[in-house]
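Figure 3 (text version): structure tokens given as input.
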């Protein structure tokens, strides 16, 4: 167990090390790598605010995971209210232990995880994705060891069945306006025509360079685009990440044909109003539903 570092830089280093694991949990609880990152960012802001008054904490990792879990719970409750649907939601999260993974569970898609009740989902993620012990799960969720074991076993059993069922997700398609806007944006990047890109930005466009900084305004985002103008290693493709408009970024020197990271884009009519660049958060590719827009306008699943 580790206590909260007194040195702010050491605390930030610890957060940086744990961030991919926090994201794995939050992405699977919310069903989206993008929503999961929102929850992680919210949790880390709360952790930084609470650090000064937290007192003595023996297990910093467990403390951070509890904050992340509570942030995920809040997210699920908001979404539940918006969708007028009920959810079972556990209350806490614990520290990590040795990882033991089942192949079906480890490779299950985020969409598959979301088909479990939230309590079963949380138990399976804690045990089979993040490696928590049964005792920790019992402590986190409350109740008896028997109830924790039951939730875990039921969740595992159901998830293994779901993992072998055909994917019944509806075929994803882009509307004509979405298609043309996204393709224009991506083609401008490939042509290094950043003057055209700037013309597509709203005056108050927001940029989140995930895990680094946030800025607002076309001038500030213009500085970000200038950095891309100086970098020649990237090529860009249009597509969807968890159903959201995105630009995939490929390293020209990497022959695996797997994206290095992605950029999520929000449009208001013809104008880009929000940019979320995952250059410094490449862990977000883990578990994401990636669809590449082919030259024929077809969205094709992107798999290794």
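Below: residues designed for each position.
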């Amino acid at each position: 167990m580790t206590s909260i570092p007194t040195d702010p830089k050491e605390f930030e280093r610890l957060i940086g090390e744990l961030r991919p694991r926090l994201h794995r949990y939050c992405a699977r609880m919310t069903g989206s790598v993008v929503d999961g990152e929102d929850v992680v960012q919210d949790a880390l802001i709360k952790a930084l605010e609470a650090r000064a008054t937290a007192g003595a904490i023996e297990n910093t990792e467990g403390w951070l995971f509890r904050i992340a879990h509570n942030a995920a719970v809040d997210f699920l409750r908001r979404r539940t209210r918006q969708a007028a649907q009920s959810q079972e939601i556990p209350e806490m999260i614990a520290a990590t232990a040795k990882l033991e993974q089942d192949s079906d569970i480890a490779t299950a898609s985020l969409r598959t995880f979301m088909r479990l009740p939230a309590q079963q989902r949380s138990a399976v993620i804690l045990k089979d994705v993040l490696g928590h012990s049964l005792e920790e799960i019992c402590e986190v969720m409350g109740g008896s060891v028997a109830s924790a074991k039951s939730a875990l076993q039921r969740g595992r059993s159901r998830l293994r069945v779901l993992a072998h069922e055909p994917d019944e997700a509806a075929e994803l398609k882009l509307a004509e306006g979405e298609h043309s806007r996204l393709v224009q944006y991506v083609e401008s990047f490939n042509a290094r025509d950043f003057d055209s890109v700037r013309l597509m930005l709203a005056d108050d466009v927001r940029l989140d360079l995930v895990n680094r900084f946030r800025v607002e305004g076309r001038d500030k985002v213009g500085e970000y685009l200038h950095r891309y103008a100086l970098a020649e290693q990237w090529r860009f493709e249009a597509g969807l990440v968890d159903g959201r408009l995105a630009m995939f970024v490929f390293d020209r020197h990497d022959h695996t044909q797997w994206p290095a990271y992605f950029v999520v884009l929000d449009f208001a009519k013809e104008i880009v109003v929000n940019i979320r660049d995952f250059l410094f958060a490449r862990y977000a590719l883990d578990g994401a539903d990636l669809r590449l827009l082919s030259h024929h306008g077809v969205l094709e699943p992107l798999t290794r």
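Residues 60-83 form the longest helix (24 residues).
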